């Protein structure tokens, strides 16, 4: 019951914080902040607390598979946002996520292999990521939806509750694959697309992509740290590495 209360309290705060950061410091910074393990990290903790450390460690290759699928989602959404409204763009991008997940799951890659594939896919996607259309005036809706932030909070919280509740039945692999499912990313993309247009959407998704190298490494390190350290120490060490990688990535990209 304590973990349930924690899920209900934590997720609204996380999504609310990311939304406010994006509004204050811009879409790129909001995307980078949004890419950090605010959802995947706690879900991994819940796996460990509720299913055991071994389950959590076995879920990590699946989570990395989900990261590659998330790259496919971000690239697809950024590209299609130039031509389509948010709803068809969202569903086609979800299809890209599922297709990538099914393909990679069929390959049964090792932890090191899927980590390498994840990093290479992020770097390649950033190299060829869609660019905002020059000369296009920014779209500014007259009014932000009244229940914007509460709706974002609700969706993210329900997702975490669903994944952790289904974990035992799904098993570590597919529980892991669904952990990086683009919930926060979708929320950021949809509202940015609707309120500000394609150029702003591309910017925020590129920010998320920049942060994914650190995010991926954070998760990869848990496969080793959790064998040696407690959850708080494992997460703190990997979070520091995540932050350092993000600082470098911002300068590179």
Automatic annotation (TrEMBL):
Residues annotated as transmembrane: 29-49, 55-76, 83-104, 110-129, 149-167, 173-195, 207-225, 231-250
Keyword DNA-binding on entry: no
Keywords annotated in UniProt: Membrane, Transmembrane, Transmembrane helix
Name listed for the protein in its UniProt record: DUF3147 family protein
UniProt lineage: Bacteria, Pseudomonadati, Bacteroidota, Cytophagia, Cytophagales
């Amino acid at each position: 019951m304590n973990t349930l209360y924690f899920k209900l309290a934590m997720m609204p705060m996380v999504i609310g914080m990311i939304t406010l950061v994006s509004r204050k410091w811009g879409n790129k910074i909001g995307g980078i902040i949004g890419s950090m393990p605010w959802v995947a990290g706690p879900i991994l903790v819940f796996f460990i607390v509720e299913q055991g450390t071994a389950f959590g460690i076995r879920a990590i290759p699946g989570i990395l598979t989900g990261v590659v699928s998330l790259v496919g989602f971000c690239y697809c959404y950024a590209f299609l946002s130039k031509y389509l409204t948010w709803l068809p763009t969202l569903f086609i991008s979800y299809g890209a996520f599922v297709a990538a997940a099914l393909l990679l799951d069929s390959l049964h890659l090792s932890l090191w292999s899927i980590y390498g594939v994840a990093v290479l896919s992020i770097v390649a996607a950033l190299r060829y990521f869609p660019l905002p259309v020059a000369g296009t005036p920014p779209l500014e809706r007259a009014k932000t939806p009244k229940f914007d932030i509460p709706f974002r909070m609700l969706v993210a919280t329900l997702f975490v509750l669903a994944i952790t509740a289904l974990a035992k039945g799904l098993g570590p692999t597919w529980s892991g694959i669904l952990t990086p499912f683009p919930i926060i990313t979708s929320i950021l993309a949809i509202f940015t697309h609707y309120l500000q247009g394609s150029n702003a959407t591309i910017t925020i998704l590129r920010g998320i992509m920049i942060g994914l190298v650190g995010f991926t490494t954070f998760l990869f390190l848990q496969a080793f740290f959790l064998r040696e350290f407690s959850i708080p120490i494992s997460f703190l060490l990997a979070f520091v590495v995540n932050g350092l990688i993000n600082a470098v990535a911002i300068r590179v990209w």
